[in-house]
Amino acid sequence: MNVSEELIREIVMKVLQESSKPAVQEDFVKEKDPSGIIRIQTDTVKCEPFKQEGVALKDVVTLDEAPRMGCGIMELDHTSFEWTLTYDEYDMVIDGILEIEIDGRVVSAGPGEIIYIPKNSHIHFQTPSKARYAYFVYPADWQ
């Protein structure tokens, strides 16, 4: 097969055009090292409303960036919502008090504390005031 100089020039121009397009900008501070390491400044993450009033969240890594583990920030404001986990989850409280109700018992955590919730747990996420926490899920593609 003979490849013309014109075809090579066309391909190179396309590659250069694609690589010069600006990367998708996040609405929070996220730094990606070429090694795959990602640093996220959690206090810059703005959560978006979820299915219920008083609940907001924002996934902070994509499946392309982290195909095995998911991560995001969630905020609860004087609310409770029921959920059955189809994945394992760790929640690290940033601000406030997070309560996890299961089988009539409540496990609570404050800033700097971590709660682990095993897969297939049927729970109520709740908070007596406002809470902000980081969640880490495995597998990332849990839906």
TrEMBL record:
Q: Which domain of life is it from?
A: Bacteria
Q: Which Gene3D superfamilies match?
A: Jelly Rolls (2.60.120.10)
Species annotation: Ruminococcus gauvreauii
Q: Which PANTHER family match?
A: ACETATE KINASE EUTQ, ETHANOLAMINE UTILIZATION PROTEIN EUTQ
- The name of this protein is Ethanolamine utilization protein EutQ
